[in-house]
UniProtKB/TrEMBL annotation:
It is found in: Cell membrane. The keyword Transmembrane helix applies. It comes from Rhodosalinus halophilus. Belongs to the UPF0391 family. This is UPF0391 membrane protein DRV85_05585. The chain crosses the membrane at residues 29-52. Keywords: Cell membrane, Membrane, Transmembrane, Transmembrane helix. InterPro entries: DUF1328. It comes from the Bacteria. The keyword Chloroplast does not apply. One of its GO terms (cellular component) is plasma membrane. It is a single-pass membrane protein.
Amino acid sequence: MLEWILILLAIAAIAALLGFDRLSGVALTGAKILVVIALVMLLLLALGVVALA
């Protein structure tokens, strides 16, 4: 998941430099959503709600 976040952030940065504001916003929004999902999963693992077996 970290790989997808980094890819989306790179796309957002390159698109912003080239002037593609909407594409940059979409990529940044996707990265934000994936960060939130990753943090929720980390919290669930830390609390022991979900176990990796």
